[in-house]
Design brief:
Layout: E1 9-14, E2 19-23, H1 28-36, E3 43-48, H2 54-65, E4 69-74, E5 77-82, H3 93-96, H4 105-109, E6 115-119, H5 132-140, E7 144-147, E8 151-155, E9 163-165, H6 171-181, E10 187-191, H7 197-208, E11 212-214, E12 220-224, E13 233-235, H8 240-252, E14 256-263, H9 268-277, E15 280-283, E16 287-288, E17 295-302, E18 313-314, H10 329-333, E19 338-343, H11 350-353, E20 364-366, E21 371-376, E22 384-386, H12 391-403, E23 406-411, H13 414-417, H14 423-428, E24 434-437
Parallel strand pairs: 2-14, 3-13, 9-10, 18-19, 22-23
Antiparallel strand pairs: 1-23, 1-24, 3-5, 4-5, 6-8, 7-8, 10-12, 11-12, 14-17, 15-17, 16-17, 19-21, 20-21
Helix pairs in contact: 1-2, 1-7, 5-6, 6-7, 8-12
């Protein structure tokens, strides 16, 4: 079985000013959702601009274990051949249990099998994360999901389209529901659907493959079921969360550099928060993503003094401040004059991981499982820290280590490698000094 958990360490000589240009890579969350749709599409599908990250590797390992033939034709182009012979008996349980994204296979496989079972999922260790929104939405379609200790048991029965409201406007829950609905008989109307970037990208992919979906980018999706989907060539959109990570690096290190291919619609509120804080930036004219569906800009960050926001900062479903971008404000706030309350209401454990930044000189006080206060500015200092088992808190440590003059060590980089491709090499081209040691 493929070895999927390795111990790589980052050695960071921080305190350097970065300069130049860095391009935003393709979106992790779009990529995994679109990959999970592949069992529904017979034939050869080509996905371009596919990020080479560990989360994608895990989904590929799962898909190949159930019968798909997947190969890389170049650095970022994936070819997937589905001959229609999907066999769940040999599913790679180790890979499946490493990524929460695999839960999307419930929706896609429900169009293939009347009855089937899948392992439970894991992913980031962020406390209890309910799957109830998935189960409730699928039940509206007539798809029953039962949980045992180690398995999900799925029964399609007489599933058909219906009109309902999402129990929670979650990104993955909405995607799962879409995947289940596109080949069901009849019409489905999903109210309070998430209109976030990865949901839109999945919908545009499915529409190009023959699905009938109206209302993309809104909270009301109307889906008319089709009998089959066709294989296509589709480019994955750039990742607004990676764009925000680079913005945070520029601000935290007081560096001036440009980030290209930033999906502006999914960063506009984040940039407004920064503008109110006093951040100066140059934003280019808009241009279209390779798949033609998203507006992109280039953003140049210019160093300057920042002041704390007049009120708290918190994430919420799109079009609110992105829930995955909220943690990336923590490194910025360590260099901001004043005190800011950060309310991370979604996850029970993520705020606890923010305290790790105190080892690097931050001044963060934990109030409860969801709220911290960050007081700045503080002088960041080097330290040796083990990566937490969560992607965004892990990249926060790297960001602050880049801002801390001296040698830091970040042990076990797997959490970062799940979502960021060749991050050391790319940042070193900006003038960073990071070594990855296996």
């Amino acid at each position: 079985m493929t070895k999927i958990f390795f111990m790589s360490n980052f050695i960071i000589n921080g305190g350097k000013k970065l300069h130049g240009t860095i391009e935003t890579n393709s979106a992790k969350n779009s990529a995994v959702a679109i990959l999970c749709a592949l069992p529904m599409i017979k034939g050869k599908t080509i996905l371009t601009d596919m990020p080479r990250i560990e989360e994608v590797n895990r989904i590929i390992e799962i898909l190949t274990s159930i019968g798909l033939k997947i190969s890389w034709s170049d650095a970022h182009t994936l070819q997937a051949v589905n001959d229609g012979k999907i066999n769940l008996n040999k599913i790679n349980k180790e890979s499946y249990e490493k990524t929460r994204s695999a839960i999307l296979l419930i929706g896609s496989l429900s169009s293939i099998f009347n009855n089937f079972s899948l392992p439970k999922i894991s992913g980031c260790k962020l406390g209890k994360r309910t799957v109830s929104p998935h189960i409730i939405a699928l039940n509206h379609l007539g798809i029953e999901v039962k949980k045992t200790n180690n398995l999900f048991h799925i029964s399609r029965g007489k599933a058909k389209g219906s009109s309902f409201t999402m129990y929670e406007s979650g990104d993955t829950a909405t995607e799962n529901t879409i995947l289940a609905a596109v080949q069901l008989t009849g019409k489905t109307e999903i109210n309070l659907a998430s209109p976030n970037y990865m949901v839109q990208d999945l919908c545009y992919f499915l529409v190009k493959a023959g699905a009938k979906i109206k209302g993309i980018g809104t909270t009301k999706l109307q889906i008319t079921g089709v009998k089959k989907l066709k294989p296509i060539n589709y480019p994955i959109m750039p990742d607004p969360i990676e764009s925000m990570a680079f913005i945070a690096i520029a601000v935290t290190t007081a560096s001036q550099f440009k980030i290209t291919s930033c999906p502006i619609e999914f960063l506009s509120l984040e940039l407004e928060k920064l503008r109110v804080m006093g951040q100066t930036m140059k934003i280019s004219r808009m241009y279209k993503s390779t798949n033609g569906q998203f507006d992109l800009v280039d953003i140049e960050i210019i160093p300057g003094k920042l002041n704390a926001l007049p009120d708290k900062i918190y994430g919420r479903p799109f079009p609110g401040l992105n829930i995955d971008n909220l943690p990336l404000f923590l490194p910025i706030l360590t260099q901001t004059h004043g005190r800011t309350l950060v309310h991370d209401w979604v996850y029970e454990n993520r705020a606890v991981y923010y305290l790790e930044l105190n080892k690097l000189g931050a001044n963060i006080m934990l109030h409860d499982a969801h709220r911290v206060t960050v007081t700045g500015p503080t002088k960041l200092k080097p330290a040796e820290i083990i990566c937490p088992p969560a992607l965004r808190p892990a990249i926060n440590l790297l960001i602050c280590m880049l801002g801390a003059k001296g040698k830091s060590v970040l042990y076990n980089s797997y959490s970062i490698d799940r979502g960021y491709e060749n991050i050391c090499e790319r940042l070193n081209k900006l003038g960073a000094d990071i070594k990855k040691v296996d």
